[in-house]
Write a structure and sequence with these properties.
With 151 residues, the protein is mainly beta. 6% of the residues lie in helices and 42% in strands.
Length: 151
């Protein structure tokens, strides 16, 4: 039997069997992002409801003010083009448009050179393809995107 407990931003999966309790660590996905505006991982496979820890590290050298990266996982029904347009105008909120937060399943903050940011997320229970992208202006258009495939 699986139960999930949320403590702040941390999500812990607990396995209960034959009277013993063991914590099951989230599956960690390490992604790097570079000055060429590319993610090192463009496909993540997950089971419905699986807990994932996304760790994004910027390996670039260009200053954060002009080249930062994030990881934003969108709902399947999101109009990605409209979301990206709104994100490009949301510099003051880390390129996360406040009016479209309901379209986001999970996101990190921005990472500059040598920085690592992370987010723990429970994969959607509905199988399908969920797009993730970098919302820093121009990065999605340069190909900084990937897919979470839930099956």
């Amino acid at each position: 039997m699986f139960t999930r407990t949320s403590l702040g931003a941390a999500v812990i999966a607990v396995v209960v069997s034959a009277g013993s309790v063991t914590a099951q660590a989230p599956k960690t996905i390490a992604i790097t992002a570079n000055d060429q505006m590319k993610y090192s991982v463009t496909q993540i496979l997950a089971k419905p409801g699986e807990t994932l820890k996304i760790k994004l590290t910027s390996t670039g050298t260009i200053p954060k003010e002009v080249m930062a990266h994030n990881f934003v996982l969108l709902r399947a029904d999101t109009n990605v083009d409209a979301f990206v347009m709104a994100a490009a105008m949301a510099r003051d909120t880390g390129y996360i448009p406040a009016s479209l937060k309901k379209q986001i399943i999970a996101n990190t903050t921005l990472a500059g050179p040598g920085e690592t940011v992370e987010v723990t997320v429970v994969a959607p229970k509905v199988p399908g393809k969920y797009q993730y992208l970098c919302t820093f202006a121009g990065h999605f258009q340069a190909g900084m995107t990937g897919w979470l495939i839930v099956k």
